[in-house]
Structure formats: structure tokens, C-alpha cells
Design goal:
The chain is an alpha/beta fold. The chain folds into 3 domains: 4-83, Orthogonal Bundle (Arc Repressor Mutant, subunit A), CATH 1.10.10; 90-166 and 266-291, Periplasmic binding protein-like II (D-Maltodextrin-Binding Protein, domain 2, 3-Layer(aba) Sandwich); 169-262, D-Maltodextrin-Binding Protein, domain 2, CATH 3.40.190.10. The chain has 10 helices and 10 strands. This is LysR family transcriptional regulator.
């Protein structure tokens, strides 16, 4: 009988590519991961991995088993959802991941709704960049999360996960009040100015860099800041320009001009495949919709980076 926990390790290896990456993501030692995969090979009765020096690749049988593992893990999530639905009332912990602007503007209202309608549920919120959410969900560190993608940064296909659209919001270029260089392109005319961007590796940083590339220039990054309130304070101090979403600039700030752009950020709820019907996940999603600010809109259609 194949062990589902070892199947999960094999699925993670197919996604991450190295035993070290699997070990880091799931808080195991590399030797423990390697040992468990060796046991899985003995259970399967056929080679699942090809080892060349320090590199490991899946054999055709290994890749085929990963397909079955995805189906098995999804069915287990469905079974868990049905069992939870059969209980009387929601209770226990609900581990929620969110990015900072949603944590400030939406999540508190959603938690208020949850406390009123499901007092036995204990939500536990953790802030993290959406780029880390997939790993945390698959590792069981989160039950549900808010994730986003931008124009110029399409959402990657995450194995073992499913998402549900929640809302879209407009993007703005934040510039010091009174500064307006010549040019019709709302991004391109700032090519000679310093920029304030997120830290490398974040979706926000990638989005801003690609928006500048689409406007025909490479930005000169002066400050690297992730928190939008700090970004806007630096803009007001004349330290550069930045791209911010609607939730990152909830009110007009003195010293800052916001110019709406023809691009948007889209937010979705994310969860493990098969968990959409879990009553706690469904309750949180419903509470989020109740807590959305009334002036959020669908924004302009998605726009891809030109080749």
C-alpha cells in the first residue's frame, strides 16, 4: 500500500526539482526526504527517481505516479470537506494567509463577520507574499489564502491548488505633487526619475519592472520598500515614483498625485484542490465578499507584456 505522506513528498519533488527544496519547504531534513522517497520506491516496486550526482529526476513511472498522487490528495481534501460539513457548526482553527494591503483593508471586516456568524471558528492570520502561498498551502501551514496577480505578471499554475476570483482593483502611478514631466505615456514619462519598488522576488517588484520595460525603459530603483504606506510617504518626500494598487492608496495623501493606469491587480482566494466546499473555507470566502470596500471594481481587462 502506498503511503499518502510519501506521495505528497514525490509530488513536491516534481514541483520543486530538488530534494533540498522539498526539505526546506516541508521542514524536513534532506536525508529524511531522501529516505522516505526510497521507501516509496520500494512500496511501488519500480524506480521512481533517477539520480545523477546531486541531481534527481523523476522516471516515467515517477511522473505517472505524481498524476495519481494529485488525484488522491484532491479526493482526501474532498473527503475532509464532506466530513466537516457533516459536523454541527464550525469550530477549530482556520489558518489564513494574506498580503499586507488586504490584511489592513479587508481581512478585519471579514473576521468580524466570521466571529458573529461562526463563533466556534478560530481564524489565525499570517502575512506573506503571494509567491510563498502555494508552498504554505501544500505543506498544510495554511488552509486558505488571499493571493493576487498583476497585469504583466500572470498567475503561475500551482499544482495541487485551486483558486476562486474575488475582486479586481485599479493600479495607480504615485508621483510627487506638482511634478509632471512631458510625455503622453503615464509610465514612460517618468523614465528619468528614480523609482520606489518592492524587494526583489515579490510580485509587486516584478510587476513594476515589467510595466517600465513595456514603456521602453529600465527603471532606476532608488528605494526598495514593500509596505505601500511607506512607499507613498517616500513619494510625498520627493524620493521617487511608484506603482500602487487601489488598496495600497485608500485615501489621497498630501504631496502625492495618483494617476490611474490602464492595468489592474486581481485578487483570488486560494486553497488546496478539493477544499473549495470545505465549510470553513466557504465561510471565510463569503465573509470576504461581505467586507469588500464598495468602490472596488473589475478594472480594465488583463494586459500581457508585449514580446
Amino acid at each position: 500500500m502506498l503511503d499518502v505522506r510519501r506521495l505528497r513528498l514525490l509530488r513536491e519533488l516534481a514541483h520543486r526539482g530538488t530534494i533540498a527544496a522539498v526539505a526546506e519547504a516541508l521542514a524536513f531534513s534532506p536525508s529524511a526526504v531522501s529516505q522516505q522517497l526510497s521507501v516509496l520506491e520500494r512500496e511501488a516496486g519500480v524506480p521512481l527517481l533517477e539520480r545523477t550526482g546531486r541531481r534527481v529526476a523523476l522516471t516515467p513511472a515517477g511522473r505517472n505516479l505524481v498524476r495519481h498522487a494529485e488525484a488522491v490528495l484532491e479526493r482526501l481534501e474532498l473527503a475532509g470537506s464532506e466530513l466537516a460539513d457533516a459536523r454541527q457548526g464550525l469550530a477549530g482553527s482556520l489558518r489564513i494567509g494574506t498580503f499586507p494591503s488586504a490584511a489592513r483593508a479587508i481581512v478585519p471586516g471579514a473576521l468580524t463577520v466570521l466571529a458573529r456568524e461562526h463563533p466556534g471558528l478560530e481564524p489565525m492570520v499570517a502575512e506573506m507574499d503571494p509567491a510563498r502561498v502555494g508552498d504554505a498551502l501544500r505543506a498544510g501551514e495554511l488552509d486558505v489564502a488571499l493571493v493576487h496577480d498583476y497585469d504583466f505578471v500572470p498567475a503561475p499554475q500551482e499544482p495541487g491548488l485551486a483558486t476562486e476570483p474575488l475582486f479586481s482593483e485599479a493600479m495607480y502611478l504615485a508621483s510627487p505633487a506638482g511634478a509632471r514631466p512631458a510625455g503622453d505615456d503615464p509610465v514612460g514619462r517618468w523614465r528619468e526619475h528614480p523609482w520606489i519598488m518592492g524587494t526583489p522576488g515579490t510580485l509587486c517588484r516584478t510587476m513594476a519592472a515589467r510595466a517600465c520595460e513595456a514603456a521602453g525603459f529600465t527603471p532606476r530603483v532608488r528605494h526598495q520598500v514593500d509596505e505601500f504606506a511607506t512607499v507613498l510617504a517616500l513619494v510625498a518626500a520627493g524620493q521617487g515614483v511608484a506603482l500602487v494598487p487601489r488598496l495600497g492608496a485608500p485615501e489621497q495623501l498630501a504631496g502625492v498625485t495618483l494617476t490611474r493606469l490602464g492595468m489592474c491587480r486581481r485578487t483570488r482566494t486560494a486553497f488546496r484542490s478539493g477544499a473549495a466546499a470545505h465549510p470553513a473555507v466557504a465561510a471565510f470566502t463569503a465573509a470576504l465578499r461581505t467586507a469588500l470596500p464598495p468602490d472596488l471594481d473589475e478594472g480594465p481587462p488583463a494586459r500581457a507584456l508585449a514580446p
